[in-house]
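sorry for the late reply, my laptop died twice this morning and i had to redo everyting from scratch. anyway the thing you sent over, i finally got around to it. pasting the sequence first so we're on the same page, its 245 residues, then the predicted structure underneath. double check i copied it right bc i was rushing
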Amino acid sequence: MIVFENKDKVFVVTGTASGIGKSCAEQLLKSGARVIGIDKADSDLKCDSYEHHIASVTDENALRKIIDGVISNYGKIDGLVNAAGIWGNSKPFYDVETSDWEKIISVNLTGTYLLSKIVSYAMMPCRKGKIVNISCLRGTIFRNNMTDYASSKGGVVALTSTMALDLAPFNIQVNSVAPGFIYTGMTKNSFDNEEVRKASEALIPEGRLGRPEDISNVVMFLLSELSDYMTGTNVYVDGGYHIQK
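ok and here's the structure:
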């Protein structure tokens, strides 16, 4: 486990009510960091170093208020993890309603952009920082009936690269993590079906579904000093799925 030598590290993590976001928050807390969580739902994380804010990542005013509070209380933000996201509509693109398309893009892509922009302004004066975006293997490897979700996550991959270029002069590294088939609250309805689970596992060279901690382990590396020479990279964490396609 990565433990930060500097015990006053401050991290902002979205999607902390469950799944990958919650796992990232838990690992950061175990490392000795302070974590500010943001989710549209409440969180059961209990720790003196954790504070939870109920807000949507699409609400720019609410996000600004939260980040202003973080800077007022702690004077800095060392890292950001954009883990909040929602699943698509599982329809061919021609059957996706415009309102449904806009909802997926708004949460998965625009939400990542909004909070990253706000946090970047807090990081730039310090001339250091780490931002990790959660993309998805479906942002680069596609299947049918996934146009809204794939487009949003493909946008996250592109956003990560352009953010990395813009923030490099400020010594801020930006990378993304592309999970494969991960068992979370968002996917359990599918993977609790034994036929679906076995079919999915058959596609994965390592032969198993991923766990949230498989993703948060890599996020922790990207938030640490060990990744100081990495930026603009999309890291697949998928049990080898992408290398056989």
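The mean pLDDT is 92.
thats about all i looked at so far, will dig more tmrw
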